[in-house]
Amino acid sequence: MDEAQQYERYVGGTPEAEQAIFEKLARDLMRVQWKIRKRGGAADIDRTFHAKAILAVENARLSFSSDLPEDLRAGFAQPGAEYPVTVRLSNASGARQPDFARDLRGAALRVQASPEQAHDLLMTSHPVSHARNAREFVRFAQVMAAADTAVRKGIALYVKLPLKVGWATAARMRRNVKAASGREVRSLALETYWSRGAILWGPAGPVRYLLRPAADAPPAPSPSKTDPDHLRYELLARLGSADVVFDLCVQRYVDDRRTPIENGAADWREQDAPVVQVATLTIPRQDPGTAPARAVALRIDQLAFDPWNTTGEFRPLGNLNRARKAAYEASSAHRHGHRFYTPTPKRNIVVSALLRGMFGVLNRFVPWHRLPTLLGLLNVEAIRQVLRRDNLIDTEIREAAPRPHPVRPPIDERVRMRRTYDGTYNDLSAPAMGALGSAFGRNFRPVHRPDLFDVPNPLIVSRELLHRDTFIPARSLNVLAATWTQFQVHDWVDHKRYPTGTKNVEVPLPPGMTWINNPGSAPESVMRFAENEGLRPAGGTGPPTLFANAASHWWDGSEVYGGDESVAKSLREPDGGASLRLENGHLPLGPNGIPITGFRDNWWLGLSVLHTLFAREHNTVCEALRGAYPRMSEDTVYHTARLVISALIAKIHTVEWTPAILATELIDIGLKANWSGPPKNWLTQLGLWLVDAHALTGIPGTLPDHHSAPYALTEEFVTVYRMHPLIPDDYEMADHRSGRALSALGFNDVQGAATEPLMRETGLVDSLYSLGIANAGAITLFNYPRALQAFERDGEIIDLSVVDLVRTRRRGVPRYNDFRAGLHKPRLRRFEDLTSDPHTLARLKDVYRTVDDIDTMVGLFAENPPERFAFSDTAFRIFILMASRRLQSDRFLTVDFRPEVYTPLGLDWIERNGMSSVILRHCPELAAFLPRTAGAFAPWRTGVPPVAGTGRV
C-alpha cells in the first residue's frame, strides 16, 4: 500500500469512487468561475479563488535551517539547502474586490529544487478551513458565487447554505468564515498563512505547514478604508526599504483525534502539535513597481499553483487536498481556455423536463418518427438529453490513488493550431483523451458472460439469419454510400488484434461442420481467428471488457493521413513537402500491392476510390493555400490542409451521407442544424431556443462539451456501425461515356491485391461512375455478403459475420433486448414484437431459446426501421447520442473552428464544398450523371448504351 494511504479515508470507499465524485465537484467549480466572470462582467475567466494578486515575485529564497531535525530531513529539505522561490501573495476571493473588503489572504510558493523538480506550497491566513471536506467547500463556493451585495451574501449564508449542507454545518461554516475574514489586515507581510491540509514529509509522516512573519518584522500603518489597493502599496513601500522575511514551520501529526487528516475544519493545536521552524523565506528588497517587475508579475499570474506539483515524499494528504487535484486542474484549464463550461439556460432545463415527461407518455402510443416534423425534432432532442444523462459511461483508466507530478510544461504552441498525428492534445486539459491507444467508452455497463460466448453457436446464427441467398438492394443508396461507411469507420475505430497465430478466439463448430482456418491448411472442427488485445487498469483483475482503440477517436482523417507521425510523414512528398505522394494521380503501391495510405486493411475498390479522391483533394487545398499565403511554410500548409480535409469529411458525413441513409425531412433538418444551425423558420428556432439554445448556431459555433463523460467512441457505437450488408457481392464496371459494361466482377476481383490493377485500368472516373450507379445492399437479415463469409485476411480465413457476432459478445455489449432497454425502449416480450414476417419468425425461434438471447446485430437487422430509414430506431439512438458528440467534443470543430486556425480560405473551402463538388473538381466528366435533387450517395443517372448496329444512343 502507498505509505500515504495508511493515513487517509476515501469518500465512496475507494480512490476510484472518490475520483468520480471529485470530478463532479470540479465541474461545479467551473460553474462557480463562470458565475464570477458573469457577475463581474469580465471577458476572461479568472481563478476560482485568490484572483487578485497583491505581490508576485520570482527572486525569493528559501533557506533550510542548518539544525533541521533529523526526521524532517527528506528530499529537498536538507540542512543548509537554499532554493529560488516564486511567491504570490493574494486576496482569497475569486473576485477582484478592494483590499479593504472582508476576506482571507493567501500565499503560494513554488520552490524550485532543481530544473526538473518543484514543490508548490499553498496557504491561507486562517489555521482551519470553513469546510471539513471537498463537498462542503464546493457547496459554499456555489452559494457565494453570485453574492455580490450585502443582501445577497446574507441570503447565501443564511438561506441557501443551510439548504445545501444542513443547518448545523452551515452555522459552523459561518463561524469559521467570520473568524477568518473579520480581522483587520495591515500588511500581507505580517500575516501568518497555514496549509490547513496535511502533506507527507518523508519519514516524519504527515505534517501541516505554516508561514509566519519573522519576529523582527516592522509594523504597518492602519489600513485604508478607501484605497482598493492599499495592501499592494504597503508591500511596495516595505520592499523598497528592506527584505520581507517569513519563517516556514511545520506541525507533526500525532493521532487522528488530535491532528485529523481528513477534516480540514479541525485545528492542530500547538499544545498537541508544537510548531517547529524548518526554513526561512526571504523576499529581497526590490521595487515591484518597475516595468520588468510588472512583467514578471503578469507571468506569475498565469501560473497554475497546485499542491500536487511535488514529489512522492511530499504527497498531499486528506480529502480537501485530494479534491484539489481535480479542482485545481479543472479550474486552471478553464481559466486558460483548455477546458470549457457551457451553462444550460434555465428555460432549457424547465422546458426540457416538461417535454421529456410529455414525450415519455406520448411515445407509448406514437413513436417519435410518426409525429409531425417539429414535434419529432423536439422528441428526438428530448431522447438525446436522456441518453446524454444516462448512457455515457466513463471508461478512462486512472491512477488508483492520486499521485504527485512535476510542474507541467507549457503546451507546445504548435499543437494549439494543428491536429497531432496521434490525436493527443485535442482536449488541451486532458492530452490523452481520445488519442490513439485510449480506451473505447461505453453506453452501458458491460455484460461479461463467458458461458454465453458460444450460445447459440454463432455459425448457426450466421447461416440461418445472415447469409445472403439473393441480394436485397437499398434502392435509395449507391455503393459509394456503402464504401463511405467503411472509409469513416477506418478513421474512427480499430480494435487491435494479436498477431495471427499467437492468441486466438476458437469458435466450436456445429457437429459435422469443418472450417479451413488458413490457406492450404486442413479442415478443423473449430473456427479460429486473432483475439483482440484487452486493457486492464494497473493491478486490475476484472474481466477483459475494456479495449484500446488503435486509431484516434477524433474525426481527424487518420484513414487518409495515418495514425502516427512516422506513417503520416511517409505519405508526404519528399523533403517535407505538404502534398501527399501520388503517382500519375494514383496512390503509390506498397510491396504487397496495397497502396501506401493512412489505413490499408480490408482494401478494395471502394476504398481505393475514396482514398485517391481525398488525397487529390488534399493536394488541391495545399495548392490553394500556397497561392493565397505564399509565406506559409510547407509544414503549416500540410497541417492546415489536413484540418480542412478532416472538417470537410465530417461535414459530408453529417449533412450528406447521414441524410441519405436516414432520408427524412426531420433528419435532414436536424443534421444540417448540427452543422450550420436550423432553418430560418421562426417556429423551429423558437422550439430549439426553448429546448436547446446551443442548437441555434450549429455545433461549430459552440464551445467543446463532453457532457457527462470524457470523450471516447463506444463499443456500442462500433456495434451499430456493423453495416456489412451494404456491400454487394457482384460488381459491373461501366464506361461513363457510353454506359457500356466493361466487366462483371465478384467481390474478390475488386479487393486486396487485385484492387489497384483494376483501378488503374478502369480509371478514377469510371470507377466512381460504376459505384455511383449501383445499389448498395439493404441493412437487414439474410443479406450479409457471401464473399465476407469466407474472407482471407492477414493469413487467416474468416467468416466476418461470425467474427462480428463473437466480437460483440466478448466485448460485453448487451444482447439485443437489454441493448434496446438500455436505450429506454420497451423490452420485447415475444418474438412477434420484433417482426411479423413468418419466415424470419420461424428462423429466429429455431435459433434462439428466448427473445432475451437474440444477438444485438441480429436484432438491429431484424427490427423494422422507421420509414425511409436504412437502419433501425434502436441503432439510431446510439447515433443521435454519439454523432453530435463527435463534433461537440472536438475543439477543432468548435472553439478552434475559426479563421486563425483554418485560415479564411480554409473555412471558405469547407463552407462551399461537399461530396459532389469534390467529385466534380477531380472528375468533371461526371457532372451529367450526379443526381439533380439528391446528394452524391443516392443512385446516379446511368449513361445510355448505344443502340446495337446504329452507333446512336
Give structural notes.
The structure is a single chain. With 953 residues, the protein is an alpha+beta fold. It has a domain at 3-335: Catalase core domain (Catalase HpII,  Chain A, domain 1, Beta Barrel). It is built from 28 helices and 19 strands. The strands form six sheets. Strands 1, 2, 3, 4, 5, 6, 7, 8 and 9 form a nine-stranded antiparallel beta sheet that branches. A two-stranded antiparallel ribbon has the order 10-17. The longest helix is centred in the last third of the chain and has 28 residues, at 634-661. It is elongated. Residues 946-953 have low confidence and may be disordered.
Cα-based radius of gyration, to the nearest Å = 32 Å
CATH superfamily of the domain at 3-335: Catalase core domain
Helix amount, in percent? 25-40%
Instruction: Give the number of DSSP strands.
Output: 19
Major sheet details:
9 strands, antiparallel
- C-alpha end-to-end distance: 83 Å
Q: Count up the helices.
A: 28
GO molecular function: peroxidase activity
Pfam family, one: An_peroxidase
Keywords: Dioxygenase, Fatty acid biosynthesis, Fatty acid metabolism, Heme, Iron, Lipid biosynthesis, Lipid metabolism, Metal-binding, Oxidoreductase, Oxylipin biosynthesis, Peroxidase, Plant defense
Cofactor: Ca(2+)
Topology readout:
Layout lengths: L14 H26 L12 E12 L17 E10 L13 E10 L2 E8 L9 H11 L5 H16 L1 H15 L11 E2 L4 E2 L5 E8 L16 H12 L2 E9 L22 E9 L7 H11 L17 H17 L10 H17 L10 H18 L22 H5 L40 H9 L6 E6 H14 L11 E5 L17 E5 L3 E2 L10 E2 L10 H4 L3 H6 L34 H24 L5 H28 L3 H12 L5 H10 L23 H6 L9 E5 L6 E6 L8 H19 L1 E3 L13 E3 L2 E3 L1 H11 L5 H7 L15 H10 L8 H7 L10 H16 L10 H4 L1 H9 L2 H8 L31
